[in-house]
Amino acid sequence: MPETARPSKREETRRETERAILIAAEKVFAEAGFGGATMQLIADMAGLPKANLHYYFPTKEALYRRVVEDIFEIWLRAAEALDTADCPVRGIGAYIDAKMEISRRHPFGSKVWASEVMHGAPVIQDYLETTLREWTEGRAQAIRRWIADGRMRPVDPHHLLYMLWATTQHYADFGHQIETLNDGRPLSDEEWAAATESVKEIILRGIGAI
Q1: How confident is the model at residue 161 (pLDDT cuts 50, 70, 90)?
Q2: 3-class DSSP state of 205
């Protein structure tokens, strides 16, 4: 079996530079919003000349859409358990595990998405009307299947999904509030694990899955 070709040094450098740009862009867009962010601010945050930034992303909107699409792709992967699990305990439980971990590791991406939607989605409305709508209906079908099989109470799948999003993303979008109420400290590994288990138990018991 032939070995997979290793990326060249040039390609590795390109990937590393793009990753640095996206990390910086997430933070700047999260803190300044689309309107307040500038390509110069993002270039400075990434430690790159502005010209290099434009080489990878010609416009601010192109970079912004890439940041939004990347966080959404991460969320899509988190929902794989909803498509394959045979019961809500496994499916929704695994989804909560994944979404809580995303909030922990990608707080800026979550804030970018939240800010965009709260402002009426001026840049990604088309994304909401197509990709997100299709994704939501697919997950709603899995929930309806579990309801039909008697594995959980008959609840509105869309409102359950909204609750899952709101609860798990709260830990990213309102991280400062949680930190303040945690005696000014970020949640420790043990506290994140406890929070995740609490969210799972409350929601799974609420829908009659356990």
Answers
A1: very high
A2: helix
3-state class of 152 per DSSP?
coil
The tokens of 205 are what? 């018991």
pTM: predicted TM-score of the whole model, two decimal places: 0.86
Sort 63 into a burial class: Cβ within 10 Å, 0-12 / 13-18 / 19+: buried
Confidence (pLDDT) at 4: 57
User: Per the structure block, which two tokens stand in for 95?
Assistant: 């989804």
Burial status of residue 65 (CB atoms within 10 A of its CB: 0-12, 13-18, 19 or more): middle
Q: How far apart are CA 127 and CA 76, in angstroms?
A: 14
Residue pair 138/83 in contact by the 8 Å Cβ criterion: yes
Q: Give me the phi and psi of 39, to 5 degrees please.
A: -65, -30
**Domains, in order of start, for the chain:** 1-58 (1.10.10.60), 65-207 (1.10.357.10)
Rounded to whole angstroms, the Cα distance separating 72 from 136 reads 12
Give first-to-last CA distance, the chain, whole Å. 47
Closest Cα partner for 88 from 133, 140, 128? 140
